[in-house]
Amino acid sequence: MTAGPLALTLGDPAGVGPEIVAKAWHALRASGPAFMVVGDAQAVASAPGGAAPVRPVHSPDEARRVFAEALPVLDVPLKAPVIAGQPSAAAAPAVIRWIETAVGLALSKSVSGVVTAPIAKAPLYEAGFRFPGHTEFLGELTNSTAFDGARGPIMMLTAADLRVTLVTVHEPIARVPAALSIEGVVTAGLVTAQALRRDFGVQTPRLAVAGLNPHAGESGGIGREEIEIIEPAVRALKDLGVDARGPYPSDSLFPAEMRAGYDAALCMFHDQALIPVKMLDFWGGVNVTLGLPIVRTSPDHGTAFDIAGRGVARPDSLIAALRLAAQIAANRA
C-alpha cells in the first residue's frame, strides 16, 4: 500500500502560514513528500510571494494524485476573510478545527502524519482555548500518555546534528525549579530514548542530561536541584536501561565536540534547549512532538505577523518539518 500524504494545517491565516505553505509546495511538488493542506483554500490561493495553483480535494488519496500539478487543500473555510498581519479571535474556531481535522485523519491512518504551521496563542485564548500551545492540545486530542501513567507529550527540537528535548516547556523561569521532579525527568528521558529508536533509527540512544543551575549546581553551592532531582533521575534512567549521563553544565553541552558524544540532550527549560538550536540553524530548525500515537512536526518559528503579507517569509523550516515528518513516518512503518 502507498502511504498517505502528510496533513499540513494552515496555522494562523493572518500570519505567514499561507505564504510558506505555498512556497513549500513549489519546493516539494516534484520530489515530495506529498502533503494536503487542511485550511481555508482562498487564504492559500491568495498567499503573497508564493501563490500556488490550489485544488480543493475531498480525500488524502485525491490529494496525493494531484500534488505534482496543484496544491491540494481540504477546504475548511473561515467564516470571514482575515487581514495579513492582523490576528483575530474570529479566526480561532477555524484554526482549532483545522488541527482537530488533521489529527483525526492521522489517528485513522488516512494520512501519514501531521505538520502544523504556526499559530498565535493570544487570539486562541480570547476564543476560550485552554491549552498552553500546540503540543499540549495535541496530547489532549490523541489522549497521549507517556510512561507509568505520566502525561505526555514531550517536545523535541532538531537542527543540523543536534536534538534537544524539554522536561518543562512553557513554564515561566521563576516556576521552573518547582516544576521539576524526578518523575518528570525520568519520563522525558524514557520518551526521548524510545523516540530515538522508533522514529530516528538510533538503536542504542545516548542521552546527555543538562543541569538546571550554573556549573550544574557546583556540588550544591549554586543550587540543589542537581543533587535532589536530576542526579537521582539519571540514576533511575540507567537502572531502566537508558544510557543517560549528567547532569552537565549547559554552557558547555552544545559545542560540536560534545554533540558527537550523545544522540539527544535532555534540557530542563525552554530557552536552555531552544537557544542552541536556533544558534546552530535558525532557519532550518524543526519541532517534533514525541510520545504521540501520530507523527507531528512543525517549523521552529512563529506566525511572524510583522512580515505577513509582504511575500518575504522563508519556508526553510516548514520544508524541513515536512521532510522530517515523512522520514519519521517511514521509520515507524
> Tally of extended strands?
12
Radius of gyration: 20 Å
Question: What is the domain tally?
Answer: 2
Structural class: alpha/beta
Indicate the CATH architecture of the largest domain. Answer: 3-Layer(aba) Sandwich
Helical fraction:
25-40%
Q: What would the CATH topology of the largest domain be? A: Isopropylmalate Dehydrogenase
Low-confidence stretches: none
The residue-averaged pLDDT reads 93
Question: So, the CATH homologous superfamily of the largest domain?
Answer: Isopropylmalate Dehydrogenase
How would the global form be characterised? globular
Distance between the termini: 11 Å
CATH class of the largest domain: Alpha Beta
Give a written overview of the molecule:
It is a single chain. The chain is an alpha/beta fold and 333 residues long. The protein has 2 domains: 6-143 and 302-332, Isopropylmalate Dehydrogenase (3-Layer(aba) Sandwich); 147-278, 3-Layer(aba) Sandwich (Isopropylmalate Dehydrogenase), CATH 3.40.718. The protein has helices at 17-28, 41-45, 60-66, 92-107, 121-126, 134-142, 176-179, 182-198, 225-239, 256-259, 270-280, 316-332, and strands at 6-9, 35-39, 54-56, 71-75, 113-116, 154-159, 162-166, 206-210, 243-248, 264-267, 286-290, 296-299. Strands 3-4-2-1-5-12-11-6-7-10-8-9 form a 12-stranded mixed β-sheet, sandwiched between helices. Strand 1, helix 1 and strand 2 (35-39) form a beta-alpha-beta unit. Helix 8 packs across helix 9. The longest helix is centred in the middle third of the chain and has 17 residues, at 182-198.
